[in-house]
Each structure stands twice: as structure tokens, then as C-alpha cells.
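example protein:
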Amino acid sequence: MKLQLNLKMKTRSDYWINLVSITLASGVSINTMETRSSIIFNNSLERQSYWGQALTTRNLGETVSAQLSPTVVHRNKTETVLDANITYTTGAGGRVKSTKRTTV
């Protein structure tokens, strides 16, 4: 599932400026490995994992943009008791346009 939001602001000269773009993504995955002694799956719900992500992008000028993407993953069953069912992580990225056809 994916949902995209664009926040814009109107300037005095009637131009729209894109403040930030937010894309919400989520999904479900199923663990298909066989049951073994270290992890035993009792039913199909224990094999499911869920994830959600909010990709937030901001243009910082004509040539530079930045992205921040916090993510949460929930696993119904973990391999050991010490593993957390919910994992939080974040990613960051950027883009610099060096010429008309080249970006870094």
C-alpha cells in the first residue's frame, strides 16, 4: 500500500513552492523457511511480519534534495527471546545535480 502527500506553499508572487513530499508505504511478508529446533511456527500468523515507512523528501534548492525514511518492522515470532518483535530504523539520503544530465 502506498499513499503520497505533497505540502505546498503559495508565495506572494503566486508561485507554488513544494515544501515537503511524504510517501507512506506499508506491507506484509511471510516467512517461508521450514520449522526447525531453534524456531517453531505453530500457525501461519506466527510467520507474518509487517512493515511501515514514511519517505519524507525536501528540495533544498534547484540542485540539492534530501530524504529521510523512518521505518518500523513488526515480526510476530522472533528466533530467540532476546530478539525484539518491533524494530525501528531510519535511513537518510541526498541528491546533488551536478550537470543537466548527471546527479550524485
In short: Strands lie at 2-10, 16-30, 48-59, 64-75, 86-96.
